[in-house]
Specification:
Blueprint lengths: L22 H9 L2 H4 L7 E6 L5 H14 L4 E6 H10 L4 E6 L3 E6 L4 E3 L5 H4 L5 H13 L5 H11 L3 H9 L4 H6 L2 H6 L4 H17 L12 E4 L1 H5 L1 H10 L4 E5 L2 H9 L1
Parallel strand pairs: 1-2, 3-6, 6-7
Antiparallel strand pairs: 3-4, 4-5
Length: 263
């Protein structure tokens, strides 16, 4: 929450995707934050960037919810890729990549994002995401393809076996989050040759399937946002250099860049 230049308060809620949550549920989650309810009538402008807000339907639903909570505010709702673009590139052109639990990519012309057929989720896509790397790790673990030391350390740290993994992936919700939860293990062991090869393969696949699909590829800077991007900053820089790409900002949280931009 800003008063123009100064940060008055900062807080975090659960995810608010209008595709997966009802309007009532979203209102309840937002209204549960005391900083919001105590200032709801005095807020003059809202900038909301989120997953599920790229379509007219998702944007309309979220706008309606926010208008109900902030009756005096001008409401601006956009998708999370635009947030990543503004946070990293500002008003400059560039290709914007999100590497977190999932992955996505777009071209940013300095004011609008231009999408392609990415964001396919952890089953068909999400190359180089936490879910993608987690899936590769678990697959290798179950097939006993991991080096012996990694296999034993993974078993000791997680206590997982075939039954528990299958249950988490096929019988419980949020399989993508379960897959991505194994990124800390991967990062902890990223000096191991097996893990280095895995990380390089994931980033190469992301560059080939996502970044290289844009005509602007190789002609403009690349910007990265997300928890996985921040963990793999060195590897991203190395891959960019190998493929002759210029790498711009790499941010863990788009919020940091957004606050700086709007201030």
């Amino acid at each position: 929450m800003l008063d123009g230049k100064n940060i008055l308060s900062e807080f975090q809620t659960d995810g608010l995707n209008p595709v997966h949550l009802s309007e009532e549920t979203i209102r309840e989650k937002i209204s549960a934050e005391k900083n919001i309810t105590s200032n709801s009538k005095s807020i003059s402008e809202i900038y909301f960037f989120g997953a599920g807000c790229g379509s007219a339907e998702g944007k309309g639903r979220m706008t309606g919810v926010l208008k109900h909570i902030f009756p005096a505010a001008k409401i601006n709702v956009e998708n999370d890729l635009l947030a990543a673009a503004i946070a990293t590139a500002g008003n400059e052109k560039g290709i914007i990549a999100i590497l977190g639990t999932g992955s996505n990519c777009c071209y940013y012309d300095g004011s609008e994002v231009h999408l392609k057929n990415f964001g396919l989720g952890h089953i068909l896509g999400d190359e180089a995401s936490g879910a993608w790397f987690g899936k590769k790790l678990l697959r290798a673990f179950l097939y006993e393809l991991l080096p012996k030391n990694l296999h034993q350390e993974f078993l000791a740290e997680t206590g997982l076996n075939r039954e528990r993994i299958i249950e988490a992936l096929y019988r419980k919700p949020n399989a993508n989050i379960f897959l991505s939860s194994h990124m800390p293990f991967i990062i902890k062991h990223k000096q191991e040759e097996y893990i280095r090869i895995l990380l390089k393969a994931g980033l190469f696949e992301f560059f080939e399937t996502n970044i290289n699909s844009f005509p602007e590829s190789g002609k403009t800077d690349l910007y990265f946002v997300g928890s996985v991007a921040s963990m793999l900053e060195t590897e991203i820089q190395e891959t960019g250099k190998e493929k002759n790409f210029r790498i711009g900002k790499i941010l863990k949280r788009p919020m940091d860049g957004l606050i700086q931009y709007y201030r």
